[in-house]
TrEMBL record:
<keyword id="KW-1133">Transmembrane helix</keyword>
<keyword id="KW-0472">Membrane</keyword>
<dbReference type="InterPro" id="IPR050833">
    <property type="entry name" value="Poly_Biosynth_Transport"/>
</dbReference>
<keyword id="KW-1003">Cell membrane</keyword>
<feature type="transmembrane region" description="Helical">
    <location>
        <begin position="197"/>
        <end position="220"/>
    </location>
</feature>
<keyword id="KW-0812">Transmembrane</keyword>
<protein>
    <submittedName>
        <fullName>Lipopolysaccharide biosynthesis protein</fullName>
    </submittedName>
</protein>
<feature type="transmembrane region" description="Helical">
    <location>
        <begin position="323"/>
        <end position="344"/>
    </location>
</feature>
<feature type="transmembrane region" description="Helical">
    <location>
        <begin position="115"/>
        <end position="136"/>
    </location>
</feature>
<feature type="transmembrane region" description="Helical">
    <location>
        <begin position="399"/>
        <end position="417"/>
    </location>
</feature>
<feature type="transmembrane region" description="Helical">
    <location>
        <begin position="364"/>
        <end position="387"/>
    </location>
</feature>
<dbReference type="Pfam" id="PF13440">
    <property type="entry name" value="Polysacc_synt_3"/>
</dbReference>
<feature type="transmembrane region" description="Helical">
    <location>
        <begin position="423"/>
        <end position="444"/>
    </location>
</feature>
<feature type="transmembrane region" description="Helical">
    <location>
        <begin position="148"/>
        <end position="168"/>
    </location>
</feature>
<feature type="transmembrane region" description="Helical">
    <location>
        <begin position="40"/>
        <end position="68"/>
    </location>
</feature>
Amino acid sequence: MKSLSIKAFNRKTLNVKHWFADGVFRTIVRNASYLGSGKLVAAVLGLVALACAGRGMTPALFGTLVIIHSYANGVGALVKFQTWQFIVRYGTPALGRGDIGELRDVTGFAFGLDLASGLVGLVGGLALLPFLAGWFDIPAEDVHLAMVYCLLIPTMTAATPTGVLRVLDRFDQLALQQLVTPALRALGGVISYFGNFGFIGFMITWFVADLAGDLCLWIMSVIELRRSGIAGALRPGLIGPGRRLKTAWDFVWTTNIAHSIWAAWGPVSNLIVGAMLGPTSAGLFKIAATFFDSASKPADLMSRSFYPEIMRLDPASRHPWQLAIRSAFISGGMGLLILLVVMVGGEPVIGLVFGKRYVEAYDLLQLMTASLIVTMASFPLESLLYMAGRQRSALVSEGTAAAGYALLLFVLIHFFGITGAGLAYVAGVSLKALFMLLPTLWAYRERDKLVSVMAPEAQA
């Protein structure tokens, strides 16, 4: 019987000086650094945008803007297929084998799913908004603006271009693209603040910035496909490609349900807080969550570069599992450093950027940062499960954790108010890590039964 003790890994696995001798590990770190450089600038620009909105409107109006954005984003998250993961899972091996026909099937199938889910999300979001606006405390006079904002749902749900750029190893392009939305938000926010354009000005700014960022991603993917000589990759199709790609529907439905549940965490949390405590509390929660998301970005960046690389490896070997431990150690260590910085500098930064009336958000941030190390150190778990073909285990894990989080959110807000929202957030993150760890350990024990989807020469 296999043991998961430290003896299961050779000494180099935990010997830091040998880690960077691994070319795959260097690639993961390089791609993460590309994304990290862009995210660092994007985080600063995002704070400028939020600062302008927070100072240019009353807390109630700022909260209304957050709720409208969260509604559109939340609807998109609920119907969104994780087509980028599908493209990486099936497109990376196809490209490695030189099978361009299969790659076209993968990208066309993903594009078709994006179109279908975007249309469903748009129709559903517009139909439900008039009935839900009152519950979310969206003023009657702003419902029409919220409906206009819902027009972004189709572009919010599209993940095909992200997958294309990752398969083609163009993380530098992704790093540039992720600057577009925050840069435009910051620019428009400054104009709206100093021009005294109020709520309408900030609403237009956020709408245009989101749309421009999404369209930029599509343009980049088209250019890169042409540069790689891959024609017809964005011709949408579901029936034909779905028949030719074995297990495609099983993968996309499983990952869709799992990520629809979990990706809606942030937007739905804002909506629940707003519904139970009002727009002002929703704005405070949004500020704290924004700081937390910015602090935990290194884990997200490592995950985006980690997943495509391990899909090029043999899952039955120790290599991808060793990479997971190395990446988790680095990410967890970064999390500890970020935690110390946030605890020391979070309050003065919030006061300086947003004003003293928003300093209460720091109390929430302190609670949320308690889960920062867990979030950052556990990022490889989901990718390992997908590599091992255990996407259903990931679904059960994420769904169970999200259900527990939602229940705790309602209960703890009822008893502790806005502080309860922070406590529920910490509990939800911890539940997700625990529920993902258990099936990952089992997959490692059974790794000899796993079969690589790469050709032997591609693995070499």
